[in-house]
Design the sequence.
């Protein structure tokens, strides 16, 4: 009877709205952050529990290879010359496989820009007709060791960075970053977009290529580690990382550039583009994660990628199989004149940074980003802390000052995601849903549940 004589204290594990009556009555309560499992097949959770020791060892092996990676910028080249399997009639795109008929507006716009850039079409109308004709082939960047932000478009003539994982010997590739706003990767294809791409090919590329050759290699992992201490998470905020890259490359640019005017324009372009390092952070993450592929019985996620229509994931232990679900629209801060109604669903290979323990997983190091959606520094810390619940380990190099230099949560375990219902947190840019307009904002979102549920169920059913 003493129970009913004491102060009533309630823990609510249902919908938060259930607390309203308690609050109205002045009863103290707390909300449990409970989410149901992504899969309703209880026997599959029992099965992974049965094989948990074997899965644990496999995940430790895969994570060790990822953490041991030493991604370095070692050179540049034309996509056709350096990307495995690249062809003149092939265009690479972000995310899982998608046909022209299912492509979103910004991806179509990016492809149209690429066709005009390549000289295969003289105007947008001709480019759209060629793109839909069946004469151009489309494949994911990820299936060629490459990554691309937003639409992720890579065509044959585009210059790409070459990143080598010096620990395992594997390579990754990414284009040069164009800047923000009305650019190809956001689906824009106006003459000024093509003109900028041509300048990047004719001036930026050879200048950087010569500078990199003089330096030999640039340690990208060291740049990221330092940038995290300076307010970046190297996905949606790259100001510190770009500055560090600038410091590394500038002396070599001055020494090797064909003339002082070219050197000045190249350095001004990098200095004026806080996102210049983004493509490099994606490629170094790709090179690191690819080292963790192919580990039997590993439930580690090695790819998260979006094409603006579908969100796809791949696991270390399931080969190159894609697991997909509908891409979602981010919560965002929109440029003046635009609203969520204008936004395309989430798009881009840049979630490879989150997969590598960066981006949204390291947002506690860059709390300014949550201001996009009215968040606080405490919210940023909460987002990162939640990601430790779904990862296998902590990064040994990438550390967060505010968390007493705790390593970023690294190695997403699809079993933990499925069991806890906690979904990976991603920060991202937002493209207009119509081709040709470009960027309209930036924001955050959680990954959709369907790809992880499908990946977990496939993984569990195939355990033997």
Sequence:
């Amino acid at each position: 009877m003493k129970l009913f004589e004491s102060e009533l204290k309630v823990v609510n594990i249902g919908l938060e709205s259930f607390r309203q009556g308690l609050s109205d009555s002045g009863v103290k309560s707390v909300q449990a952050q409970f989410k149901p499992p992504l899969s309703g097949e209880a026997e599959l959770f029992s099965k992974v529990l049965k094989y948990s020791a074997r899965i644990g060892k496999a995940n430790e092996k895969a994570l060790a290879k990822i953490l041991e990676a030493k991604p370095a910028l070692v050179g540049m080249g034309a996509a056709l010359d350096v990307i495995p399997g690249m062809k003149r009639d092939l265009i690479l795109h972000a995310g899982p496989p998608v046909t022209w008929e299912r492509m979103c507006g910004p991806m179509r716009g990016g492809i149209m820009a690429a066709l005009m850039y390549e000289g295969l079409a003289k105007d947008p109308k001709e480019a759209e007709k060629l793109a839909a004709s069946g004469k151009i082939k489309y494949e994911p960047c990820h299936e060629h060791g490459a990554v691309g932000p937003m639409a992720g478009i890579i065509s044959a003539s585009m210059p790409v960075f070459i990143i080598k994982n010096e620990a395992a010997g594997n390579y990754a590739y990414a284009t040069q970053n164009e800047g923000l706003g009305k650019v190809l990767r956001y689906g824009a294809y106006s003459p000024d977009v093509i003109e900028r791409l041509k300048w990047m090919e004719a001036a930026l590329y050879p200048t950087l290529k010569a500078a990199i050759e003089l330096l030999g290699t640039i340690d990208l992992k060291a740049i990221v580690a330092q940038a995290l201490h300076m307010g970046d998470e190297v996905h949606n905020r790259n100001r510190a990382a770009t500055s560090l890259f600038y410091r590394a490359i500038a002396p070599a640019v001055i020494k090797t550039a064909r003339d002082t005017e070219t050197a000045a324009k190249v350095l001004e372009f990098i200095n004026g583009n806080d996102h210049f390092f983004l493509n490099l952070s994606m490629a170094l993450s790709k090179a690191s994660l690819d080292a963790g592929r192919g580990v039997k019985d590993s439930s580690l996620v090695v790819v998260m990628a979006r094409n603006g229509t579908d969100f796809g994931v791949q696991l270390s232990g399931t080969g190159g199989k894609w697991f997909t679900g509908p891409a979602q629209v981010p919560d965002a801060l929109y440029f003046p004149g635009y609203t969520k109604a204008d936004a395309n669903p989430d798009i881009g290979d840049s979630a490879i940074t989150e997969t590598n323990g960066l981006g949204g997983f390291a947002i506690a190091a860059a709390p300014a980003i949550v201001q996009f959606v009215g968040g606080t520094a405490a919210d940023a810390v909460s987002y990162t802390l939640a990601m430790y619940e779904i990862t296998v380990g902590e990064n040994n190099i990438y550390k967060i000052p505010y968390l007493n230099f705790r390593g970023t949560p690294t190695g997403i375990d699809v079993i933990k995601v499925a069991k806890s219902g906690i979904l990976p947190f991603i920060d991202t840019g937002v493209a207009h849903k119509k081709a040709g307009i470009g960027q309209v904002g930036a924001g955050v979102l959680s990954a959709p549940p369907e790809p992880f549920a499908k990946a977990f169920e496939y993984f569990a059913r195939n355990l033997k």
User: Anything to note?
Assistant: The longest helix spans residues 191-215.
